[in-house]
Structure to design on (608 residues):
């Protein structure tokens, strides 16, 4: 007698993704899908996809999706969550989308304490357009528009979005995670679940930053990309809970 | 029904709420500030949503989000702010989303002035934002008409799944006029099976997007827009023609300028000059055929376009008439408003020259 020990999550559509080998988007999609299915939220979930590699996220996740203009996902999500407060609303944005062109939108959505969840994918580079420097590109990291490596004098320093946004009163819960190994992946899964749970309680803005890989544009093998993420990226962007206003309440 | 005295901007906001608009997103800019101010107070009372956005860009994208879930949504701004909304309007077109956008035009370019202008005609009527698209553009010439057209704007937006712009100017936004509230009940709810409002509604997954990576698929979409636009051009053209029968000269003007031109025409009528007024209400689709038919009449010696810009609608007037009659132009721009006597002088000059 056969027994199903593993199957595709009900939160994923039965299609292949377009992501490159070694890219973490697919794993992160799967975690979101699993959490939505586990929490029985697929029927009321509305995702907002960005401009960038995840522009087709709505073709992969098995819930409603709205595709936003570059950087505008937090504004689109504001329009959705304010008019449909009973829905589970989450954005999925890359670093160029969120930290560069959409910097104003994410700052103000967070400041207003908009009650949707942000999934922020930080892979320190522009993926879809072919490896240009992102606001999160590390010092010395090579990009097609910083071919000798990022120089702080010429290009400025990388932005730690999670820390910056956590200074705002509207941020209720903010954690930086990655999926580069199994213990980290399990923590990331818990973080998504916590963000969605807190969103449905209406506590304020919830924000999960994923450190992610881009082997294609980093010019690395998938294995090396995973190692570089853990050694170099984690050194500048430390993993862990950055803000949790509900932790104090739990102590009380 | 009783007449009530209303300021233009407030009448527009109230008309939107009465029509069934349940989400307003805006950003301060003169001369339209009374719209967000009124909405902030009255939209929540109607069970709707008001958000003061961080920018015009954010406001139009909030409209995009609300509309994507099937809610009647609106934003308003004035010329420089409308420039910022172009991106979002293009995405609304690309994603087949209804929305209402009010532009209380002021004199440009750049920061320009806060005085009335009509220089956003090209921006509104040619192709909003990037790509092959249009929006329906409605131009009221008074506050009663502005209130009436707001209701029509929401109806047209839902009917054709398109953004609709109410294109007025600071004069209409700021002045007060007596109006009658003709319709008392909100527009009926429209079935929106495409709305991304969760699978729980109809058991289906919805994906609202303007991305069509395969160019043949994208071309098919744009061609579907073309068909829709042809239908709009056939069924939704609106205009007013006043005194054009046996007119020696017809003035073509829209919005505030049309009112001023009408005063000039009345003055000239007293002098025995027969001057008609042709006032497009839909600037897109433009009433080409109606104007062509009037211009073709034997009595009409010329069609004078009057605008608060350098001659933008003038191009549509010339397209309508195709050189069959002279098409002179008179305009003030940069925030200056023409006076009836200046228009009358221009008409007298034209008719005198033509007699020579």
């Amino acid at each position: 007698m056969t027994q199903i020990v593993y199957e595709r999550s009900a939160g994923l559509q039965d299609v292949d993704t377009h992501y490159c080998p070694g890219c973490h988007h697919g794993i992160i999609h799967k975690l979101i899908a699993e959490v939505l299915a586990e929490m029985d939220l697929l029927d009321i979930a509305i995702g907002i996809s960005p401009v960038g590699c995840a522009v087709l996220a709505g073709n992969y996740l098995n819930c409603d999706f709205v595709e936003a203009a570059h950087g505008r996902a937090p504004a689109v999500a504001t329009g959705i969550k304010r008019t449909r407060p009973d829905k589970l609303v989450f954005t999925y944005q890359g670093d160029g989308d969120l930290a560069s062109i959409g910097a104003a939108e994410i700052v103000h959505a967070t400041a207003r304490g908009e009650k949707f969840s942000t999934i922020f994918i930080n892979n320190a580079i522009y993926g879809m357009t072919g490896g240009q420097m992102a606001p999160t590109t590390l010092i010395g990291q090579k990009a097609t528009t910083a071919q000798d490596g990022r120089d702080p004098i010429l290009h400025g320093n990388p932005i730690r979005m999670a820390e910056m946004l956590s200074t705002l009163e509207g941020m209720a819960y903010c954690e930086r995670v990655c999926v580069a190994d199994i213990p980290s992946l399990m923590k990331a899964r818990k973080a998504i679940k916590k963000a969605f749970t807190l969103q449905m309680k209406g506590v304020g803005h919830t924000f999960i930053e994923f450190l992610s890989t881009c082997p294609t544009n980093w010019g690395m093998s998938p294995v090396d990309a995973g190692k570089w993420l853990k050694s170099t990226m984690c050194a500048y962007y430390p993993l862990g809970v950055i803000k949790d206003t509900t932790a104090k309440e739990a102590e009380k | 029904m009783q007449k009530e005295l209303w300021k233009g901007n407030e009448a527009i906001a109230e008309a939107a709420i009465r029509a069934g608009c349940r989400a307003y997103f805006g950003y301060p800019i003169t001369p339209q500030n009374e719209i967000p101010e009124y909405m902030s107070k009255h939209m929540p009372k109607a069970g709707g949503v008001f958000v003061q956005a961080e920018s015009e860009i954010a406001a139009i994208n909030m409209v995009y989000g609300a509309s994507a879930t099937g809610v009647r949504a609106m934003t308003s701004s004035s010329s420089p702010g409308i420039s910022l909304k172009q991106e979002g309007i293009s995405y609304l077109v690309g994603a087949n989303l209804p929305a209402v956008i009010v532009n209380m035009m002021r004199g440009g370019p750049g920061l320009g002035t806060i005085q009335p202008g009509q220089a956003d005609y090209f921006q509104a009527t040619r192709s909003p934002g990037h790509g092959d698209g249009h929006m329906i553009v409605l131009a009221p010439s008074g506050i009663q008409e502005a209130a009436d057209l707001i209701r029509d704007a929401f109806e047209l937006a839902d009917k054709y799944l398109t953004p609709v712009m109410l294109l007025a100017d600071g004069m209409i936004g700021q002045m007060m006029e007596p109006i009658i509230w003709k319709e008392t009940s909100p527009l009926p709810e429209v079935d929106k099976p495409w709305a991304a409002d969760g699978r729980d509604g109809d058991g289906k997954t919805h994906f609202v997007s303007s991305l069509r990576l395969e160019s043949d698929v994208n071309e098919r979409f744009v061609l579907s827009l073309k068909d829709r636009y042809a239908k709009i051009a056939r069924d939704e053209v609106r205009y007013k023609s006043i005194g054009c029968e046996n007119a020696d000269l017809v003035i073509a003007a829209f919005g505030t300028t049309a009112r001023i031109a009408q005063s000039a025409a009345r003055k000239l009528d007293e002098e025995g000059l027969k001057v008609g007024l042709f006032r497009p209400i839909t600037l897109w689709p433009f009433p080409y055929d109606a104007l062509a038919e009037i211009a073709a009449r034997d009595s009409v010696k010329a069609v004078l376009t009057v605008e608060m810009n350098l001659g933008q609608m003038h191009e549509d007037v010339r397209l309508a008439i195709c050189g069959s009659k002279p098409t002179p132009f008179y305009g003030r721009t940069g925030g200056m408003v023409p006076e009836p006597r200046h228009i009358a002088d221009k008409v007298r000059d034209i008719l005198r020259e033509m007699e020579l």
